[in-house]
Amino acid sequence: MATRHTTHQTDAMTETQSTHTQATDYDVVVIGAGPVGENVADRTRAAGLSTAVVESELVGGECSYWACMPSKALLRPVLAQADARRLPGLSASVQGPLDTAAVLARRDSFTSGWKDDGQVRWLEGTGADLYRGQGRLSGPRTVTVTGPDGRRSVLTARHAVAVCTGSRAQLPDLPGLDEVRPWTSREATSARSAPGRLVVVGGGVVAVEMACAWQALGSRVTVLVRGDGLLGRMEPFAGELVAEALTEAGADVRTGTSVKAVTRENGTVVVLTDTGDRIEADEILFATGRAPRTDDIGLETIGLEPGSWLDVDDSLRVTGHDWLYAVGDVNHRALLTHQGKYQARIAGAAIVTRAAGEPVQAEKWGAHTATADHAAVPQVVFTDPEAASVGLTLAEAEQAGHRVRAVDVDLSSVAGASLYGDGYRGRARMVIDLEEEIVRGVTLVGPGVGELIHAATVAVAGRVPVGRLWHAVPSYPTISEVWLRLLEAYRDA
């Protein structure tokens, strides 16, 4: 067992000690203490492996402080108000604007004021050692940590190093962009007040969620989308319904539009588009993609390209390195917190199995499998209306060579939808493999559909035969009755 060096000990180091380099052996070293790294460490510690975790920012990572939690804290009042406004008897009571200051204060509580004390206590409660500082590979199975005070710690891993450093916002190559001080997802989720005018560049999840949030919190939002619609990785109708709702809420959604130049003049952001428009705003958010946070973790010392996505097998082990694992966003398989945590469970099982000298089985099923499956990746977009999907879209299934049929249902026809209030709008699609008679993918759009997607995930991940789904009876009156309507549409087609 390695000697423990907690954060408290590190903070107590004297100026003389800060220049000392100390070497410590562990079974496992984890770089990155977001949800993914935390889960890898939890699994390896539970199996009795000594584990060190290295974090350069806040324990809890992007999800806890700049992504999932603060963004959903911003959006929940927006969706609750939208739901209430659809209900006769309640709508008249909620016609005023949201209390922006109260929403932001509640958002702050979700991030614990951007302090990680609670997360640190949880991590150290697992028995893992936390090292604060920049962790860099310095050769095979070796990580050198440079702490905030300059102190260096060399950590060697007997069995595995897990890179769990996540991803960061990728900004476009526009001259002078640094001087504009653009927002990324971090600034959009942590802003202290609503800008009067906000330009959002992009049409993906971050773009539409933040456009929805800040429009409702008092900003005049303009969305600039290079492509022909929003949410391009979902079925086309998902983006269409979300764009329609954003427009009705007051946002200006412009498709087929790219930013040609952007400057800040006397505090005002000036955006020039390729369509010849000039747009003025107080802030501009670029939500135009993600890049791996692997540029400063020493990949060059083991023959890998700094700043690259890391290629892995289904046990999350990096190609060509039998001791190195890349878990979560850094392997580019699915840039979602829940999928990263799933991968962490798989990687943890693989590390523990190999540490015991046992082979990792190729079997994909079972609670302790060490092989990841990515056929059923669910996602929820917390806009009004919500959009949720899992598995393949119709186009993706056809491109993959499957013989499929898509069946569509208007969600407003489901009895449970009427309980959500007047004017419910939504749509559901199920993509069925005609040869195997299983569900390849499901997309749902409408208020409340985020809570339906796990049932769809079970159907896709479990490859449940369509014939058996007839016997999974949905409760009445809930919007889960859409499953029955989809099966009827398939039968009657």
From TrEMBL:
Domain (FAD/NAD(P)-binding): residue spans on this chain: 26-338
InterPro entries: Class-I_Pyr_Nuc-Dis_Oxidored, FAD/NAD-bd_sf, FAD/NAD-binding_dom, FAD/NAD-linked_Rdtase_dimer_sf, Pyr_nuc-diS_OxRdtase, Pyr_nucl-diS_OxRdtase_dimer
A GO molecular-function descriptor: dihydrolipoyl dehydrogenase (NADH) activity
Keywords: FAD, Flavoprotein, NAD, Nucleotide-binding
Disulfide bridge map: 63-68
Top-level taxon in the UniProt lineage: Bacteria
Chain spans, region Disordered: 1-20
Record note on cofactor: Binds 1 FAD per subunit.
Record field: transmembrane: none
UniProt domain Pyridine nucleotide-disulphide oxidoreductase dimerisation: residue ranges: 377-483
Binding site for NAD(+): 202-209, 289
Binding site for FAD: 72, 135, 165-167, 329
Compositional bias (Polar residues): 9-20
SUPFAM superfamilies linked to this entry: FAD/NAD(P)-binding domain, FAD/NAD-linked reductases, dimerisation (C-terminal) domain
Cofactor dependence: FAD
GO biological process: 2-oxoglutarate metabolic process
Family listed: Belongs to the class-I pyridine nucleotide-disulfide oxidoreductase family.
PANTHER family registered for this protein in UniProt: DIHYDROLIPOYL DEHYDROGENASE, MITOCHONDRIAL, DISULFIDE OXIDOREDUCTASE
Protein name, entry field: Oxidoreductase
Annotated organism of origin: Streptomyces gancidicus BKS 13-15
